[in-house]
Amino acid sequence: MGITFYIKQNFLPSEVCRELRETSRKASGTAAGVVRAGINRLDDSVRRTTVLTLPPKASSRVRDPIVSNIPKFEEYFALHLQNCEEIQFLVYREGGYFRAHRDRNNTPNEPEYIRTRQVAVVLFLNDMNDPREGFGGGELLVYGEVNRCQRIVGKSGMLVAFPSDTIHEVTQVRWGERFTAVTFLH
Known about the structure:
Blueprint: E1 6-8, H1 14-26, E2 28-31, E3 34-36, E4 39-41, E5 47-48, E6 50-53, H2 56-68, H3 70-77, E7 88-92, E8 97-101, H4 112-115, E9 119-124, E10 135-137, E11 140-143, E12 149-152, E13 159-163, E14 168-170, E15 173-176, E16 178-185
Antiparallel strand pairs: 1-13, 2-6, 3-4, 5-8, 6-7, 7-16, 8-14, 9-13, 9-16, 10-15, 11-12, 11-14
């Protein structure tokens, strides 16, 4: 079986991505955790990234177009989707990564929001391998059955969506800063 994912180039205009990067660079942030058994914990062996706190206007610039495209996601993934989680703005700095994982976990001790995630959405805010505004490394790897892997090269404004139970990872950033906005559809 192949790997199921949806890619839309230029989902966000380059000017919006540039403004979101500038806002992100000025934003405060906290180390991102990993949720296990309903508890959000820091674990550098699994994840090294920062969740940024951006103003509500920034979130709506990402959330609104995603929500308006829910019917397209429903059709593509053959799912009934009702809403999306709060937008997470992430920065992976040099050395940052997120080891292979799934964004949905159906075990009863996990919070409902994790158990009910249907589609993961990643929106790149800068280009991989752009020496001025981009980053090196930090590839998004999406895994399928029988050791199949799709390497996704991030481009500013590109949206990538895939089922939340798909194993995926972010490889280590070698240089620069990798800016993304992430959410999950339910």
